[in-house]
Amino acid sequence: MIESKIKVLRQAAQVSTTSSDKIWCVAAGNEDTINNVAYEAIASKDKIKILFREHVSVKEAFVRKKFDLMMLYGDETKIRDLSIICKENGGAFLKIAPYYVKNEPNLLLLVAPENLIKRFIGEVEKKKTNLTLILEDKTTGFIEADVYLTARLPKFIRDIIDPLFKVTDVVLTTLLISVPMREDAEKIKEISTHNNIFIVDFKDILKED
Predict the structure, then answer these.
(1) Rounded to 5°, angle at Cα 124 from 58 and 138
(2) Of 25, 147, 6, which Cα lies nearest the Cα of 86?
(3) Is the distance from CB of 110 to CB of 201 less than 8 angstroms?
(4) For the chain, N or C: smaller number of CB within 10 Å?
């Protein structure tokens, strides 16, 4: 079962006083938002390392939802600047302090539209799989959505339908969770994949870093 967010609040003071110049972060949102973050990160390549960038397309019913995400590592002050840029453009941004990496087991990063995250949480609860929610953030801007089956329709119908979905308010959620048991972490990865959720196992990031 999911533990209370009170644990996160109790840890906040410890995280804020952790002595470290470098942290990890993830930015998520529409393509323009992440382009703005990427531009600033590249301009500060002596202080920031881009670990990866992904263009994600999720098909759900007849709708295709598109978003970008980027994970970075580097100077804490510069990452704070990137978070401001991301949030001002409606994106979601998580700053992952070394405290979490050192003290939380089996860290997993999840990014997906909010409705898919809620469905994922429901399935995890049903399977009685233990996890702790560490960090969460949501987009306040739009991500692109369209009807992917409209390619088969006449152009005049596509011209009517597509704009309706491209302005649909789709909230993107980013989560950082920890899982006590490695076996449960693998189960959660399977559930995430089944629910079209983009997931990163933090141990793989540490190997690359």
Answers:
(1) 50
(2) 25
(3) no
(4) N
d(CA 188, CA 191): 5
pLDDT, tens digit, 9 for 90 and up, residues 18-41: 445 899 999 999 999 999 999 999
Q: Return all residues near 85 (Cβ < 8 A) that are at least 6 apart.
A: 36, 37, 40
Q: 48 near 78, Cβ under 8 Å?
A: yes
Every domain of the chain and the residues it spans: 6-58+65-208
Place of tokens 């560490």: 134
pLDDT number for residue 116: 92
CB atoms within 10 A of CB 169: 10
Q: CATH number for 6-58+65-208: choose from 1.10.3210.10, 3.40.50.720, 3.30.70.1150, 3.50.50.60.
A: 3.30.70.1150
